[in-house]
Write a structure and sequence with these properties.
By secondary structure, this protein is of the alpha+beta class. Helices cover 40% and strands 15% of the residues. Helix 2 runs antiparallel to helix 15, helix 9 packs across helix 17 and helix 14 crosses helix 15.
């Protein structure tokens, strides 16, 4: 779902830890605890229970703690299972076949909803819907409110101002793709002298590739949609794929590692390079704040991913692909317990603290209880008054499309020929049409 510009610019709260698209460590964990009604009163656990399949591995510890807190207040059983990074959809499919299926799960937007709309309870008129600050955070299936966004985020180029200054520049010197290219290539030319690189490694390991096959790939989709006045397409023209190539070339050829090494480079590796001040620029988002704050808030800048299309007006990429859905196949008691738990999470002091505190989940939540941001990256994103780049990757047709694109980008990085870039184009345009047709036939 697109966020309206006015709403996006008004976002004012904290984010932390990794996406994506898939932003976090792999592995899964599970914990059983008890929940409560929204009022916080003790409830007989036999009246209903909650099973939350969590999407964000980096937030697992805090969901487990919150479930225990909920247990101590109420008596409604809450189970939290966290899917491994990149494995959410397959985990959801598996868990939904079980007798004790998740009562609370996530879809990433219209494409995800198409697969799970028959399992989505109508949240119209619910307490949780009433807590939203704007109805643009609702995911609709016709008149039905099938999902509700529970976190909003921003991403771009996290920048080390101190290193940039050592290279003789400031963030104010970078206002366009051409500016970014000039700075990056100059840093590369003086890499041995300066002792650092322009960009962190653009790793294409599964812990990192979502940054480029999803988040970076959002830019050519965004500008094509904008030019054509649409918010989804069955077929792409690939109008801005040369811009995509230009920024990808800039990343991989002005980096901490050789482009031939990208297939095994990880997300943790890029994160470490930035924190250890081995690179100036790190494409990532507000969820990374808890890690990157190690270089000091005063050293952080947050730049748009300048794309060479409308640089004078381009802002940060801001939006969400995180929508809570309640399993309509669950029992009436479990649905009520789940709705109560959701509302408690965004209205109670302890729930709001767990979700928004910078030393916990660090989320910016689109609810009335959202406090002033403690996240410097979000403050910087909100301070950027240019047009936010909407999150259109929720319209990407499938994980297969993303994976095919990621593989083509990796091959191209190792051997940067026009023929290999043609394979990227094919993965982007031709496979989009194929996967959209498959999705349509399956729905």
């Amino acid at each position: 779902m697109k966020l309206r510009k006015a709403t996006v610019l008004a976002l004012t709260a904290s984010m932390a830890a990794a996406l994506a698209a898939g932003c976090g460590s792999s592995g899964s964990s599970e914990s059983a605890a008890s929940g409560s009604s929204a009022s916080g009163s003790k409830t007989d656990s036999s009246s209903g229970k909650v099973y939350y399949l969590n999407f964000k591995p980096e937030a697992d510890e805090y969901w487990q703690e919150l479930a225990k807190e909920y247990e101590s207040e109420t008596g409604v059983k809450v189970t939290v299972l966290t899917a491994a990074s990149g494995e959410y959809e397959s985990t959801l499919k598996s868990e939904m076949t079980k007798d004790e299926a998740p009562t609370l799960f996530q879809v990433n937007g219209p494409v995800g909803l198409a697969s799970w709309k028959d399992y989505c309870y109508d949240l119209s008129g619910s307490d949780i819907e009433g807590q939203l600050t704007d109805d643009s955070y609702e995911l609709k299936d016709g008149d039905k409110v099938a999902g509700i966004a529970y976190v909003t985020e921003a991403y771009g180029l996290i920048t080390n101002k101190a290193l940039l200054e050592k290279a003789g520049y400031s963030a104010d010197d970078i206002k366009s793709f051409d500016d970014l290219k000039k700075v990056a290539e100059d840093i590369t030319a003086r890499k041995d002298e300066l002792g650092f690189s322009a960009f962190t490694s653009a790793g294409m390991d599964s812990s990192s590739d979502w940054r480029f096959k999803t988040h970076l790939a959002n830019l050519p989709i965004y500008y094509e949609y904008k030019a054509d006045g649409v918010d989804d397409k069955d077929e792409l023209k690939g109008t801005y794929l040369q811009n995509y190539r230009d920024i990808w070339d800039l990343y991989i050829n002005n980096s901490t590692i050789d482009p031939t090494q990208l297939s095994t480079a990880t997300g943790n590796q890029a994160e470490s390079e930035f924190v250890n001040q081995e690179a100036v620029f790190f494409q990532n988002g507000t969820w990374e704040y808890d890690k990157v704050k190690a270089i000091g808030d005063d050293n952080l800048a947050f730049l748009p991913i300048y794309f060479g299309v409308d640089d004078a007006n381009e802002g940060l990429c801001m939006g969400t692909e995180n929508y809570w859905c309640v399993n309509s196949k669950a029992s009436e008691a479990d649905i009520k317990a789940t709705l109560d738990f959701m509302n408690w999470c965004v209205t109670s002091d302890k729930g709001v603290e767990a979700m928004t505190s910078s030393d916990k989940m660090g989320f910016n939540i689109p609810f009335k209880s959202n406090p002033e941001s403690q996240n410097t990256l979000f403050k910087l994103a909100n301070a950027n008054k240019n047009t936010p780049v909407s999150w259109n990757f929720s319209t990407m047709p499938s994980e297969e499309w993303k994976n095919t694109l990621g593989q083509a980008l990796t091959v191209y990085a190792a051997d940067q020929t026009d023929a290999n870039w043609d394979q990227v184009k094919q993965a982007f345009v031709d496979n989009w049409k194929t996967e959209k047709e498959l999705a349509a036939s399956a729905s």
